[in-house]
């Protein structure tokens, strides 16, 4: 594991704020989490003080994992070698504060998570709509809860497409869908932008 893989990344906007991703190792500047702390953060989007972590999309990534997969993820994170990397404090600008207040900027994921929900111990990997729904929760963060797409998030970014049968993707067959996620190239010959994390998903 390269140090850069676990160093802080920065999400920056001169108008909204500057947010740093956490050092997830137990090195200097990192975190020292017990299993319960990991569950609290990954399942509920809460830190040790029971306050919402900032801008971590738990609700669309780890919150709804099966107990088996969440346990495997926690085991993996705990096994990472310590990296010394002191992360600066977040800086939220006035516009970021206003957008957060108006529910236009997803700064506090814990507010959108059902903390009383229960989760399956294991979810069998199979080619079924039920398993597809389990996997597609990560798509909802960008494409919307109904996967109908939405306007671009900001200047210079592309509109987020409709993933349902009413969108262009509804014209693709299964092989074309898989090929697009594997290669980043649609059946029409269009290259996906870096705003679509196909390299990670595929």
Q: Structural class of the helix and strand makeup? A: mainly alpha
Task: Tell me the number of strands.
Answer: 3
Q: What is the overall shape?
A: globular
Q: Kindly state the mean pLDDT as a whole number?
A: 88
Biggest sheet: strand arrangement = 1-2-3
Weakly predicted, low-confidence segments:
1-8
Textual characterization of the structure:
By secondary structure, this protein is mostly helical. It is 31% helix and 5% strand. It has seven helices and three strands, in the order H-E-E-H-H-E-H-H-H-H. It has a three-stranded antiparallel β-sheet with strand order 1-2-3. It is globular and about 50 Å long. The two termini are 21 Å apart. The N terminus is likely disordered.
Which features does this protein show?
202 residues; mainly alpha; three-stranded antiparallel sheet; 3 strands; disordered N terminus
Quick overview:
The protein is mainly α and 202 residues long. Helix content is 31%, strand content 5%.
């Amino acid at each position: 594991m390269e140090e850069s893989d676990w160093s802080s990344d920065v999400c920056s906007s001169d108008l909204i704020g500057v947010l740093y991703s956490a050092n997830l190792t137990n090195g200097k500047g990192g975190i020292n989490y017990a299993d319960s702390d990991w569950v609290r953060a990954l399942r509920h989007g809460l830190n040790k003080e029971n306050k919402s972590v900032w801008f971590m999309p738990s609700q669309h990534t780890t919150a709804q994992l099966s107990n088996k997969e969440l346990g495997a993820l926690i085991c993996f994170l705990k096994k990472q070698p310590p990296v010394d990397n002191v992360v600066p404090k977040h800086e939220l600008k006035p516009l970021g504060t206003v957008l957060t207040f108006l529910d236009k900027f997803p700064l506090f994921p814990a507010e959108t998570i059902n903390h009383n929900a229960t989760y399956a111990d294991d979810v069998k990997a199979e080619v079924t709509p039920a398993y597809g729904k389990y996997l597609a929760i990560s798509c909802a963060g960008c494409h919307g809860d109904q996967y109908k797409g939405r306007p671009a998030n900001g200047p210079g970014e592309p509109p987020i497409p409709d993933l349902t049968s009413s969108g262009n993707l509804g014209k693709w067959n299964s092989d074309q869908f898989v090929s697009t996620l594997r290669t980043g190239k649609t059946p029409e010959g269009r290259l996906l932008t870096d705003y679509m994390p196909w390299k990670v998903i595929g």
